[in-house]
Amino acid sequence: MNKSQRIYVKALKKYNYGYIDKALELCEESISLNINNAASINLKGLLMYLKGDINACQKLWKMNSEINKDRVSEKYLEGLSRDLERLKFYRKSIILIKNMKINKAIDLLTKCTESDFNIINVDNYLAICYIKKANCNKAIKYADNVLKIDLNNKMAQNSINTINNINGTKGKINTKKLTCIFILLVFIISISSLSYLKLKNKNINTFNIKTSKLETSNKIKQDKKNLKNNTHKNQDIAFEYDTLKNYIDNENYNAIYDVVEKFKDIKLATNDQVLLSKAEDLLVSKGVEYFYKTGCDYLNNKNYKNAEVYFSKASKYGLNTYIYPDVIYMLANTLESSGNVEEAIKYYNQYNSSYSDGDYEQTVLYKLALIYNDLDKQKSKTYAEKLIDKYPSSIYNNSIINSIVNN
User: Fold this and answer.
1) Which of 217, 285, 335, 371 is the most buried (most CB within 10 A)?
2) Is residue 295 part of a domain?
3) Domain boundary among 58, 78, 98
4) pLDDT in tens, 20-40
5) In this structure, is residue 296 part of a structural domain?
């Protein structure tokens, strides 16, 4: 076996073990030693094919076919015309994802999986799509597919980390409850201390009621100052720095949420304020996805009360996240399912106003048309007409919508 062939064998092993970039380097080294090494040329073409570089793999296989009369390369070349169409689907899907049209993007990406062309990028974006839909099982499937080919793929690794963060908070409920009880007890003690101070001040004022007006005024001012200082001290005591740091380290999003909500409008010591800001940032970056996923689980089980709690938490900190439009729709859907139609209308209208090109827009228009049919016929007709005009082939363009428009 010559040196070029030995390097090819190493390249093949690296590819099989998921080190695709190293395999590419070895292929180039092998080809540089022997331009007639058809196996190395084919392998390099295949690696570029998996990466989605259609021009590179086409040139390699064409060269192999012409120079080395390689039949395998000819077979590869025959299927590239169909892959050009898949490349168009892939590029369009990226635009759809940026515009939060996740379901349409999934449809196009699924068509791309009919061949292995560009499969690394295709599976990476399918994983991202399913993360956005809070479907962790499918997301991890596609991320794993990428890592089987490219073990060091950063995009797939990030997807796996995101999925682990979503799922990693399970089993921490008891700790959360115990800690919340502890914080509640501290809060009660603080309130009790304030009540005692108020009672003490009242007694002092009663005892000194016969003193001069000036003395009484000064005493009241001093008592107010003391009360304010004591209140600040009690707040400092109630803020448990180490406890919140532990929540952050363990990504206990429910407990973090409770602490942030309690102290976000209270002036704290500098170190405490920095930690609180860090906690709030974690809620935005990871907590929102966790709340959304948990809300979806409750909604699927028709536990509307808990679903509303989690979607509300997600909506509170999710405004600048990619998942926010889905949160608003799910919150509206939950409220409607639980019978709170008035609140549901508010969130359906918010979705329609802010995310009119979103994945759920036609569903939202349909629901608004139906809800307003019992409240405001003209509004109902407006939504129904918008649904028909914007989505003429929608499954929601049924006899009910036609009846609303025609009456």
Assistant:
1) 335
2) no
3) 78
4) 999 999 999 998 888 888 999
5) no
CATH of the domain at 105: 1.25.40.10
What's this model's pTM, rounded to 2 decimal places? 0.49
Average pLDDT, the chain: 82
C-alpha span between 244 and 264 (Å, rounded): 13
| pLDDT score, position 167 | 62
Same domain, 224 and 204: yes
Q: Which tokens go with 243?
A: 């406890």
pLDDT of residue 392: 83
Distance CA 272, CA 141 (A): 41
Q: What is the pLDDT of residue 229?
A: 45
pLDDT at 134: 78
Query: Do 94 and 182 share a domain, yes or no?
Result: no
Q: Are 117 and 49 in contact (CB under 8 A)?
A: yes
Answer whether 369's CB lies under 8 Å from 389's CB.
Answer: no
Residue 64 CA, chain-centre distance (Å), reads 45
What's the domain range around 37?
3-78
Structure-token match 């709340």, residue found: 291
Confidence category of residue 185, pLDDT binned at 50, 70, 90: very low
Share of the chain above pLDDT 90, in %: 43
Which residues, other chains included, contact 12 with Cβ-Cβ below 8 Å and sequence gap of 6+? 23, 43
Instruction: Please indicate whether residue 221 or residue 277 has the higher confidence score (pLDDT).
Output: 277
Question: Does 122 score more than 50 pLDDT?
Answer: yes
